[in-house]
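sorry to bug you again but im stuck and you know this stuff better than me. below you get a single protein, a line of residues and a line of whole numbers that encode the local backbone shape. mainly i need to know what kind of three dimensional shape the backbone takes. anything you notice is useful, everything is just below:

***
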Amino acid sequence: MTDLDLTAVVIPEDAQPDSPATAPQLRECLRLEEAHNHAVWGNTDRCGTFGEALYYWRGNSYFERLLFLASKNGMPVGSCSVEFSLKDNLDTAWINVLVAEDHRRRGIGRRLLQTAEEMAADRGRRIFQGFCEEPAESADGPGEMLHAKSGSGSLPLAVPSSIFARRAGYSLEQVETSSRLALPVPEELLGKLESGALEHAAGYSLVGWEGSCPEEFVAPYAELRGRMSTDAPTAGLELEKVNWDTDRVREEEQTWVKSGVEALVSAALHNSTGRLAAYTVLSYRQTKPHVVFQEDTLVAFGHRGHRLGMLVKIANIRRAQEAWPAARSVLTWNASENRHMLAINTSLGFKPSGFEGEWQKRLDDPLYGT
């Protein structure tokens, strides 16, 4: 396909989110993403803001991120990206491909995927990972299901993302359930759940912060952030521990502030040791006032069984409803095998909205995608 032009999205260091002339190729990539989300979900709730994208695709000392806009006869028709961790997971690349609906089934997706894979291989990466989310109703009906190779859950075999990934040699390793919580949550429900959880949580107390972690907690918070990559279910996805320290926590906080993201953190403190035992994060954008994103939630091994996950989530929901009164829902994603966290979410009122396939391809295993 010689008439397909790929343009690297370049973001100047002095680029500012509020300038209409900033990063025009990036704006085109976001328009493609928004059009896709409108077609699939009927809204753009899952899309980030331009400010987020500006800082995200600029990369940092922890990630190199490459984004390309695909055009045909001067018209944007798709995008592809590849991301490389610079501190850990040095064998892995994360790849994403998007083709505009009117230009699919013409070989554009295959060309974009091949380009991203070649860039990853040139940097010595042998493991390629990617994901695609489908609406919950796509699993309705009698069609054949594709079961996760190493985790639990399944996806419809006939949806375009499954067909595309399998033809490219990728295996479905894990399925995540996406869920939506309607806000506000009745205080009667929160109080009842909190009362039951407190009976199991002797020896723990709740702490929380907005934006910047207090200095007294930042080191144990960084430790928990690192454990998120090892304690949360990852099925057969080849993932190493992500190393977090106080500098990494502070860099993330500063980036969120610059890009217009507000964050609330609630955590459980183990009173006898002074260590953080659990945490949960909610994020919010004033330019997308109706939706909140549930980021990480983790209860560390050794502290499970005390209903800490429920307690920190309840605390953060209450704080979010006070801080962001325009919000009407919370979106979250959980591994299908993470039954405990899914049960907590169900108790709080989350309803399934979609299923996300986590796909993987290993260059050193030619049979892996079969």
